[in-house]
């Protein structure tokens, strides 16, 4: 198929689409509604189709059966702010000056010179909204309305960044020393102004339902115009919160209850699309910002057997679920095991809508051919694993993954916490280059570097190119292609 010929506004069958695309004249770009649902700290194994146990996710399962499930899909980095920066700009987070998670006292945020998905889609007439967690800068100049969104409601950073202990008791009432003492009351923001506060665990219980109600209302109000709805949930990040209608409903405890409410939320959104007659002209994308925070034990998700979790460059930190549904365009009930990442969403939407790509360099590639089910398509061949302080910790090429010497977080060897309290973690050091064949060893148990020296050398060439472009703090290389995050007042 000619991938420069994208989809017309009408809903047509895939076979008709492929036949039409072979004609000499190019098709007009499409203007589907776009809904991007982003979970927080949800692991690869947390939905029914990838192994969820003791709770059901029927709406997510239905979403997958009506579209494509990506099994080799990666977040841009294994932590919140960086991952979201990568998703919205189509860049590796360190290219746009992001690493780690921004604190409530940060004076940096997303640079106004970067182009977000929302800004790009507004050039094609889209009405844009974000409902949920932002985490790309809490100061006014960094908030969504200054970066392409017409509407915003939600929290500016993670829901655990508040002066409340893990048991729900305000820190000021306890004689302890904690970083949480530094946190302000967690604000709820509408537009550019504080609309309310999240002060208690009961307030956390309301977030998923409130986000969902507002998302449904947005769909009802804008069903006659092309819209982009970005719904980054606060859950399943700790502290977990769930409404009374789902509390105690799962056999897995609170985490299962929360996942059931998230699944319900997806179902309500799909009902709204059907009620407004726009479900067939809406692309729905469901994914997560990174893997699970494993040291929270029964309040954390599961990697489905992948190694380590959030905050690491092992598979459990960055390989996440991804489902996409677009009736009549994406083949139903398909699975894609080709390499892809959240940094690919922006260029994919650009190709679908005919929007112009950002002027500044991006790292994403269009994965539209994978969405269309083209068997021979393979638009992404490699992926870089950077973590905090611009440290290059690994690279992947096709199904081979090279782990570089580095110091990193580990959940192994320490008992996890329970009922909202964290367990201990440790710091481990990788002292030599390690190679993993992810086709046979997705759990990264067996270092096969000594068996495939030619593969190691190929991947080291990729490492050298990455260091020249984006740098590497481990080796002291600055990199010529890095850009700065936005700074307050500049």
Feature tags:
about 500 residues; alpha/beta; Alkaline Phosphatase, subunit A; Arylsulfatase, C-terminal domain; 2 domains; ten-stranded mixed sheet; four-stranded antiparallel sheet; 11 helices; about 20% helix; disordered N terminus
Structure write-up:
The protein is α/β, with parallel strands linked by helices and 490 residues long. The chain has 2 domains: 31-381, Alkaline Phosphatase, subunit A, CATH 3.40.720; 383-487, Arylsulfatase, C-terminal domain (2-Layer Sandwich). 22% of the residues lie in helices and 18% in strands. It has 11 helices and 20 strands. The protein has helices spanning 14-21, 58-65, 80-89, 117-122, 201-205, 207-221, 254-275, 315-318, 345-353, 368-371, 453-470; strands at residues 33-39, 68-70, 73-74, 108-109, 127-131, 151-154, 186-190, 193-198, 227-232, 282-288, 322-325, 334-336, 340-341, 382-387, 391-397, 400-403, 406-410, 426-430, 434-437, 486-487. The strands form 5 sheets. It has a 10-stranded mixed sheet. A 4-stranded antiparallel sheet has the order 14-15-16-19, covered by helices on one side. It has a two-stranded parallel ribbon with strand order 3-13. A hairpin with a 2-residue loop joins strand 7 (186-190) and strand 8 (193-198). The N and C termini lie far apart (46 Å).
